[in-house]
Design a protein that fits this description.
- The longest helix has about 30 residues.
- It contains 21 helices and three strands.
- It is globular and about 65 Å long.
- The chain has a three-stranded antiparallel sheet with strand order 1-2-3.
- Helix content is about 60%, strand content about 0%.
Length: about 475
């Protein structure tokens, strides 16, 4: 039988080991929290030192290694094919298509969290992936969604700026105006004016970027309701995710439409850094213009007919097909219409790409969505016939390197089916999506301290003289 003194010693030992076990459990939990933090900003802070070191190592080891020759055709042909930019969030392979941080679109559909079982990826999940390179957990995705909802506060003067424009102004003009008005609240501009050290630039850039991503659906939906629905705006639903909430504010409650918006925002988010909108955001941002200024500039590029405006051109062309020969057309009728279009000096919109040499996987996943949700829709069936008819015709002509359909060949038909029939609004949807990719990269531009862009330009006379001197001895 233990004495009272013995019991006291045993009690002390038990308390000691219990305390030690609790400390161990708490420290272990902290370690797990670090590995699976739901704080996106904290995760970036963890990653920055290793990425800075990696950049330094690459510069030291390989700084003088050539990435390839630059030809005159490249210089005067839109700089196509010139390797001249660091862009980590996505990589476009001519044969395979886009990869987001190494993941293909089918990979993203399989691995990223969804709102419904077997559904489309959540844009918030893609945002986490693009910024960190990690496939997020469901909890991390929910945390990002919650954070974006909390940030989606659009000041009244933004609406005033938009309302100062006539309703007949193109939706992209109104969208760009709204973004510029948001710039008044830029955390980066304020911090820079107060003398922020360069190593901390990424922090206010992150705040601006997340605030911008959060506010864009609100602004975009306001423009849609203002222009097409009599000005009756719809408040956000705090229970919905980013894509579903955007669709809700536009005025759509159908769960399938919510799924389409999730897919649309995900696949249009990023496509390397060389396209007009992404490169413009990078270029303007490299001058340390804040994310609002940089993104507004990018949206003005996206509004161009050769870039983001192409999706509305596709639907208009398809409508012209329907108007002239109907929807229940034979393959021969469609071939004749396509050839007449080409012979008149016009192009068939939605086919071809500056980089891709195969069918755009963004087209493919939209086709799969249509086969699942609207297989009997007449416009979808027409798009399917065009997929069979157009590429062989373009191949026979031999004038294009890529005769296959791109992302724009399908998106308009899906949007039209679910109720967004106003095709001149489509580029605004594209713009909301593109914020996810460009802002993810812009945060890293500031974190890595990337310099201002300043490529060398040449006059036509200089090119001619240089080439003459290089070839005179041959």
């Amino acid at each position: 039988m233990a004495t009272s003194g013995g019991r006291s010693v045993l009690s002390k030992l038990r308390r000691h080991f219990t305390h030690a076990r609790l400390v161990s459990q708490i420290e272990g939990a902290r370690g797990l929290q670090t590995l699976a933090t739901t704080d996106l900003r904290a995760r970036i802070a963890e990653l920055i030192p290793s990425q800075q070191e990696k950049l330094k190592e690459v510069k030291n080891k390989y700084g003088s290694v050539s990435l390839g020759d630059t030809t005159v055709n490249m210089a005067i042909g839109g700089m196509r094919g010139i390797k001249g930019m660091l862009w980590d969030t996505s990589l476009l392979d001519p044969e395979e298509g886009i990869r987001f941080r190494g993941l293909s679109i089918p990979d993203c559909q399989k691995q990223l969290p969804t709102a419904v079982p077997g559904g489309e990826p959540l844009p918030e999940a893609l945002l986490w992936l693009l910024v960190t390179g990690d496939v997020p957990t469901k909890e991390q995705t929910i945390a990002v969604s919650k954070d974006l909802r909390a940030r989606a506060n659009v000041p009244g003067y933004v609406y005033d700026a938009i309302n100062a424009l006539p309703k007949t102004a193109h939706p992209m003009t109104q969208f760009s105006t709204g973004i510029m008005a948001l710039q008044v609240q830029s955390a980066f501009q304020k911090a820079y004016e107060e003398g922020l050290t360069k190593s901390k630039y990424w922090e206010p850039a992150y705040e601006d970027s997340l605030n911008l991503i959060a506010c864009l659906p609100v602004i975009a939906a306001y423009i849609y309701r203002r222009v097409y629905k009599g000005g009756e705006a719809i408040d956000a639903d705090s229970e919905l995710d980013y894509g579903a909430n955007f669709a809700h504010m536009l005025g759509f409650t159908d769960g399938k439409m919510h799924e389409l918006m999730r897919l649309y925002l995900t696949i249009h988010s990023d496509h390397e850094g060389g396209n007009v909108s992404a490169h413009t955001v990078r270029l303007v941002g490299s001058a340390l213009s804040d994310p609002y200024l940089a993104f507004a500039a990018g949206m003005n590029g996206l509004a161009g007919p050769l870039h983001g405006l192409a999706n509305q051109e596709v639907l208009r062309w398809i409508k012209s097909v329907v108007h002239e020969i109907g929807t229940n057309v034979t393959t021969d009728q469609l071939k004749e219409y396509v050839l007449n279009t080409l012979n008149s000096g016009k192009v068939v919109p939605g086919f071809g790409h500056a980089v891709l040499r195969k069918t755009d996987p963004r087209y493919t996943c939209q086709r799969e969505f249509a086969l699942k949700h609207l297989p009997h829709d007449s416009l979808f069936q027409l798009v399917s016939k065009l997929y069979e008819v157009v590429p062989p015709i373009l191949q026979d002509l031999g004038k294009v390197k890529n005769p296959w359909p791109n992302v724009d060949a399908h998106s308009g038909v899906l949007l039209h089916y679910f109720g967004i029939t106003e095709d001149n609004y489509y580029t605004v949807l594209f713009g909301v999506s593109r914020s996810i990719g460009t802002m993810s990269q812009l945060i890293w531009d500031r974190a890595l301290g990337l310099p201002i862009e300043r490529p060398k330009s040449m006059t036509l006379d200089w090119i001619e003289d240089y080439c003459r001197s290089k070839t005179s001895g041959k």
